[in-house]
Write a structure and sequence with these properties.
Strand order of the largest sheet: 3-2-1-4-5
Helix content: 25-40%
Order of helices and strands: EHHEHEEHEHEHEHHEHEHEHH
Structural class: alpha/beta
Strand content: 5-15%
Shape: globular
Radius of gyration: 20 Å
Distance between the termini: 35 Å
Number of strands: 10
């Protein structure tokens, strides 16, 4: 059995897809078990190749019933907590980044500036496992009754600094609706109030607010069949990449070359006004790099990705 630790969120799992697929291809006959939060189960099913999900809300504590895995793979971080959690299982071998604190020197060195997808592919390649960072596509979700062809705006983020101001989302929503877009607003149950305020300010009907009303599988279905997605640097953006859905992603404070969609896919447009030299942000609310992004700029980016789709004949790129 091969155990993989990736106990994080939606975007984290989506960026780990190429590495998971690489492990599946390298060990086709062995059970592949993923240690991740149970809430990610609908998305795990859309990744494919994972035989079992072990609920792991805390990466420092992995509880695996049954025998120890033959191989454990740390796709969570550099350690030491995650290294120790996997070592405690008594696995025969660990694939992980080097960490002096736990005396693990067998893996490659961590690169803080590396793109999240490349990081885990490089880890596996260092152990002789071929990985393709382009292998990001997700399986089509089952029928869910979600609307088709809508424009998805996702104003929330669990990190407040990553949120583009709500009034600007409202202005964008109003402008897109006036141009014929059927706009819906997504988010978690805790973000339903935010989505409702954006909808009200934009003059959208209450039924446009889907925040808190979709499970992860339904959200994936909504994004898969959406006209376009506009969001911050959060999980919905990675779903759009996985389905080739046109998207505009507003970055800040983390630069897009660490978490953004592949730069060679023109239907995914990144907007970032930040800099790696930007001073540390300890303020409240949106990061200054997001405050620098205007509604007209984002609206123009939506038009641009739609133009790309029209000119490409709707073939995912």
């Amino acid at each position: 059995m091969i155990l993989v630790l990736r106990a994080l969120g939606v975007g984290d799992l989506a960026t780990g897809v190429p590495a998971l697929r690489a492990l599946r291809a390298a060990h086709p006959a062995e059970p592949l078990v993923l240690a991740a939060p149970a809430s990610l189960a609908p998305l795990v099913a859309l990744v494919g190749g994972v035989d079992r999900l072990v609920d792991t809300p805390d990466p420092a504590s992995v509880r695996l019933p049954g025998p120890a895995p033959r191989l454990a793979v740390n796709l969570h971080g550099r350690g030491p907590q995650s290294h120790r959690a996997l070592a405690a299982l008594g696995s025969g071998r660990l694939l992980a980044f080097a960490n002096d604190e736990v005396g693990f020197a067998g893996g490659p060195e961590w690169d803080e500036d590396e793109h999240e997808v490349d990081r885990w592919c490089r880890l596996l390649v260092s152990y002789g496992i071929r990985a393709d960072r382009r292998d990001l596509a997700l399986r089509r979700p089952p029928e869910s009754g979600m609307p088709v062809g809508v424009t998805v705006l996702h104003p929330g983020s669990k990190i407040t600094a990553k949120r583009w101001p709500a009034d600007r989302f409202a202005a964008l929503a109003r402008g897109l609706a006036e141009r014929g877009h059927r706009v819906v607003l997504t988010g978690t149950a805790g973000e339903r109030g935010l989505a409702a305020r954006v909808a009200a300010a934009a003059g959208l009907p209450t039924e446009a607010v889907l925040a808190g009303r979709t499970g992860l599988g339904e959200l994936a279905a909504l994004v898969a069949d959406a006209r376009v997605v506009v969001s911050g640097d959060t999980g919905v953006a990675h779903l759009a990449t996985g389905y080739g859905t046109p998207s505009v992603v507003l970055f800040g404070p983390v630069p897009p070359d660490r978490w953004g969609p592949p730069p060679d896919r023109p239907r995914h447009r990144v907007i970032w006004a930040g800099s790696r030299d930007w001073p540390r942000w300890d303020g409240v609310g949106s990061h200054p790099s997001l405050l620098a992004l205007g509604v007209e700029e984002v609206s123009a980016a939506v038009d641009e990705v739609e133009r790309v789709v029209r000119e490409s004949g709707a073939v995912a790129a």
